[in-house]
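Two proteins were folded this term; both appear here.
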Amino acid sequence: MGSFQLEDFAAGWIGGAASVIVGHPLDTVKTRLQAGIGYGNTLSCIRMVYRRESVFGFFKGMSFPLASIAVYNSVVFGVFSNTQRFLSQHRCGEPEASPPRTLSDLLLASMVAGVVSVGLGAPVDLIKIRLQMQTQPFRDANLGLKSRAVAPAEQPAYQGPVHCITTIVRNEGLVGLYRGASAMLLRDVPGYCLYFIPYVFLSEWITPEACTGPSPCAVWLAGGMAGAISWGTATPMDVVKSRLQADGVYLNKYKGVLDCISQSYQKEGLKVFFRGITVNAVRGFPMSAAMFLGYELSLQAIRGDHAVTSP
């Protein structure tokens, strides 16, 4: 087989769809905790969302990421796998061989995947967060006005993903779809390094030497642990990204990444940057386990292999 392989993209699409279905309810909780007001801790947030909006509140805004994150994940996994394979083969000078992967190959491939992911993922994340946050009461404290709450019964700002996109483009231009992209870049480049690298090494460590590839159980465990590590460490910049992207539903508070960090720190202290870290790590495990398992098993089916092949 040549160095560029399309099946990595197809398998990434399936893995992405599986991860969205598994992880979206906790993703809604995470977004409300980070960018919302008055939710307290994770459990009180879950209870409040359920009481106000029933179980459907947890799946608010899922249709758009289900359609788009599958494509986004397809590109991320395809870019990572093909870049890593290209680097390894270029280093060894044997285009048709499967040389061993080095840490530097994995690091560079993860960084490339992180940069590409922001180009595709920033608008997806923005739409998802805007739809998740539009039933959240916002208080305009900065302007010295009385606290005002937008009741869930009022007309929401957006009727759905398409209306959300058109409203943002009309009000802010195309650049509005990339609000928070710089924070996302600072989150995703190191985030993907701490995602793919632990997965590769953990899956190889768990797999006995006699086996040609990791078992589905090893993939599930290594993928879940990699997700928990990656999402846990990415939380501070994820908080900044969520706040920047939620900003603008009803009012604009932040001028950019540094302004968001400064305002958040001044008002809520250092602990604000670790808000949602528990739900991020807990959600990261099943989401990433489903993603890697969906990726590896579909790749195995596409290639007709009997052993799972790591990305």
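Next, the second protein.
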Amino acid sequence: MTFQWTAVAAFLYGEIGVILVLCLPFISPLRWQKIFMFPLWSKMAVFWNKMFLTIIVLLIVLFLDAVREVRKYSSVHVNEKAANVNSSAFDHIQMKLFRSQRNLYLSGFSLFLWLVLRRTVTLLTQLAKEMASHAALETQVNDATEAAKKYMAEKERLQEALSGKGNGKKKESTDATEEKLKEEVERLKAELQKTSQAFHKAKTEVAAVKKQSEDLRREYDHLMKDFEQLQNLNKAEHKKDL
């Protein structure tokens, strides 16, 4: 192989290795997000889009060149076979056709896996953010639940105090105490209502986050199935080359 196609083959093998590492089940998206937050990756992120587009353009050019070579040698192959030329020239054309087809597969799979790699990294980042948001919402819901329980207990205590007040005291003092306690109960009721509304809102947000997380997981699983199929095809072509 020439230098450019050796580089494309090495790039393809590197893509396969990186995607396999990203798909390891025991590394969670949150851990990948921490890895992506390293200072080195932050510096590279500035040039990431430019590098991605540059590699896309190079792979497209190589892919189109490989398509041109395949069409060229396919037509020559048919013409030479029809003309019944000597076997050495026919074998040389077959070799050229085989190499052009190999280059077509290399550039095509490299281009596709480069897009899959970009999409996989994006999905991992989005899934990590959704998981972090889900955990924060769960904490908020738990805090709201505890506050609601606390206010309910205080309300019951005040109601018991209201029902037990008045025995052995003057009527004026009893009325003032009852008014004060009623105001306290009304204040606690208002706070309890606000807490209940916040609790229901948090539950709704948690349900929405769970649904979005499930959609991301399904899309991630779909990409995994496509990648496994492409990997099987690549192995078959590699065995054919050997």
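Confidence is low (pLDDT under 50) at residues 166-171. Helices lie at 3-22, 29-36, 39-83, 87-164, 171-241. These notes refer to the second protein only.
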